[in-house]
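re the bet — no i am not wrong, look at it urself. input seq straight from the record:
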Amino acid sequence: MNQPSQLPLLIGIGARTRKSPYFDSTIKYGVRGFTIYNKMYLPTGFSDPEKEYEALINDVTFGDFAAERQVEVTGPDAYDFVRYITPRNLSKCEIGYCKYIILTDQHGGLINDACLLRLEPNKFWISPGDGDVLLWLQGIAINSNMDVNIVEPDVSPLQISGPKSGKLIQKLFNGIHDDLGYYKARETNLGDIPMVIGRTGWSGELSYELYLQDRKKGNELFEIVHEAAKEFNAKVIAPNTIRTIEGGLLSYGSDFGREHNPYTIGLDRLVDVDQDVDFIGKDALKKIKEDGPSEKLVGLEIDGDPIRKAPENFWPIFDTSKKKVGRLSRCFFSPRLQRNIGLAIVEIDYSEPGTVMTLESPNAHLNATVCEMPWFPAEKNTNLD
């Protein structure tokens, strides 16, 4: 009898899926695979995930995060429109500030999470996770009676992360951005390469993002960063699952979706139902706040052998009586903690730290315990001293 093929699964490269300005560089420096994210190829790895993790927490890393697309909102009513689409109170969002926001629907469900950059009084970039946020916001704008223009600008982030990333930025820009504060952004250039630099990033470590504004300069920028980073023992990496789980950094479509609300996933700090502004989902979120959520996102510590392959599907979670009470989205072995950790959404009665439950993985039933998270909060120190 013929045995099943053990050949690796490959992703087809074609014209229908967009390539980033750094695509040739990712090939040159040994990318092992891609996924599709915001209708664009996103690298999934260049070496073993734990090796990339070690470089991220100890030195400096950089890579192609261009699939982190931007939605640009401009026009006379841009500020009012941005306040309408999110429950976060943006009354103190000044020019040059970045804010972590959520987008909710009329029922309080989560459309996505995003990083908001305010570049001018009426110019905003919204950088969401994987999804159709551009279409969502364009649809809202049509019936909003607000004078706004919503497009996807050709802006492509190159992310630089790790404890030495501040020193790499200092070297690249001759120190002119040493004063750039956490979650701040400004327009700049590197030689003749125009960009916005932000103290933002989805890594859990100290991070900067170079929002390239001329796609023809993508591989040139990649090479400049690669050369400057050599003295810091840099590695080219992809988004790292281990560190994002450790930091409790959530992934839309995986850790949560539209069926969830901000209170379920612990982002109630981004909801102000008492502000004067009327935003989408305000009444629904008021009721959810009053009633309390029925589910909650939690951290899990998981028994068993080290998990070194991320789940391909959600793993069901059962209580001690074998009742299904939730599902695990992501897990991996943490080298620093020397244990398996993961993120899950469970019924509210099972969300207290110390609660014991069972995961049904493809190969075994694993005991797990609810714990506090994040295990390692996001790093904010530039380490320039």
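see?? The longest helix spans residues 218-229. told u. also Residues 176 and 384 are 13 Å apart (CA to CA). so pay up
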